[in-house]
Amino acid sequence: MDTIFALASARGKAGVAVVRISGPLAFSAARQLAGELPEIRTAGLRKLVGQGGLVLDEALVLCFEEGSSFTRESVVELQLHGSGAVIRAVLFELSEIDGLRFAEPGEFTRRALENDCMDLAQVEGLADLLEAETEAQRKQAYNVLSGALGSIAEKWRANLIRAAALLEATIDFADEDVPVDVSPEVRSLLAEVSSALEKEVSGSVIAERIRSGFEVAIIGKPNVGKSTLLNALAGRDAAITSEVAGTTRDVIEVQMELAGLAVTLLDTAGLRETTDTVEAIGIERAMSRAQAADMRVFLLEHENESLSIQPVDGDVLVVGKADERNSTEFSVSGVTGQGLDELVSKISITLSERVQGAGTATRERHRIAMKNAKNALDEARIEIDHGADRSEFAAEEVRTALRALDALVGRVDVEHLLDEIFSSFCLGK
Fold it and tell me: What is the pTM for the complete model shown?
C-alpha cells in the first residue's frame, strides 16, 4: 500500500500544525527529515532538515508502530510551528521522497475502515463529530463514533445467526425426527430483534433531526410582527420589516442554537387571500414549509383568531405585538422583547422532550438498512407460522436480514457509498 501524507490540522496560521504520514515507508521518510526517531509513542524534539541541508523547522515527532495507530499502519506525526511557510516547506520535502504521495480526502480514515479499526457507522460518526456545532450534535456523533450502533447491530446479528442455525438444523433433518421443536426459540429470537429494530427505526427520525437541525416556522397573517420577532430572536436584522403588509415574499431562514440543539427559524410570508402573483407564490411556499417544519409558532392578532393551518401537539400559539395590545393570553413583542424568554423556553422544552426518544442510528442509510432487516424478519416469522416444511424459506429471510445488518456497519454492499462519504473529509483525515 502507498505511503501517504497530509496536513492533519486546519489550514491557516496557528500555534501548531500537524503533518501525518501513514504507510510502510512512514518511519524511513521521517528519518530522512528528522534523523534518529524517538521511541514508539514517545514525543521527541527534532530538527527537520531538507535535502539541501537547510533546517526547515524544529518539531515534535511522534511515532506509532503498525497495529497501534489510527490507520493500523506505521504512522509518524510531525508537530510543526503553524506558519504557512513551514507547512509548505515540509510538505514539499515529503513530496520529493520516493514512494510517498499526498493523501486524498478522507484517505487516513478510509484506511482505518479497510484495516478494521472502525466500521462504516463509526466513520460516519467521525464525519458528524468534525461537523458538530451544538452540544447535542457532539454527544450524538461521539456516541456513534464510539461504536454504539455497531455494538447494537452485533447483538442483533448474534441472535439472528442463532436463529438461522436452528432453522438450518431443521432443514438438515427434514426427513428425520428432530428431538426438539426449535420454532419457539426461533420465534422468540426474531421477535426480540424485530422489536428492537422497530424502536431504533422510530428513534432514527429524531436522531437525524439532531444531526441536521430542527425547523421551527413562524406563521401568521401579514403585518402581525413575524419578521420583527425573527430579528429579535436572531439578534440581527435578518428579515426586512415594514408597516406594509406582505413585505415578506420568500422564506427567510436563521440558524441558531437552543438548548444545545441546532434550530433553523423560518420567517414566512403572511397568510391571506391575494391576487398578487408573486405574493401568492410566497404564501404557497409558506404553507408548504410550515407543514413540513418540526414545530410551528402561530403569531396571532388576537386570542380567538381562526387559523388556516391547524396546530398540532407541540406547536406554540402566541399573540403578537404585545407592546401594542393588552392580551390576557401568552403574548410576545419583537420590539420590546416582552415574552421572548418565555417563547424561547417553550420552543426549547418542546424540542428537548422530543430528543429524549432519539435512537442511535442517525442517517437515512441506517434507517433503510434497519427497515429492510425488519421486513425480512416479518417475512421469516410468517414462513415459520406455516410449519416446518417452510423452514428453508424462513432461513433465507433471516439471511436477508443479516445482510441488511452487515450493510448497516459496512461489511457488505456499501462500496458505492465510500467515495461520497470520504469526499466530505479534509485531506488530513
Answer: 0.77
